[in-house]
C-alpha cells in the first residue's frame, strides 16, 4: 500500500504505515488516505497540493530532528 499524507507533521507519499502513523497521530485535522497503486497516490497528492490543501501541522514539543525542518516538510 501507498499512503498519502496531506495534513500532518510531514506530507507526501509514503510506503510505511508505521512512519505514516507517527506523522498523523495526535494531529488535529490530520488527513491521510491509502492507495494500492503508486502512481494514483502521487496523482492524488499532487492534485491536493495544487489545490492548496496540503498543510504541515506540528504540535508543541514535536522535534525537528525526528520530522525534519518545517520548511522541507511539504514534498
From TrEMBL:
Residues 1-44 form the Ribonuclease H1 N-terminal domain. Pfam families: Cauli_VI. Gene3D superfamilies: Ribonuclease H1, N-terminal domain. This is Ribonuclease H1 N-terminal domain-containing protein. It comes from Amanita muscaria (strain Koide BX008).
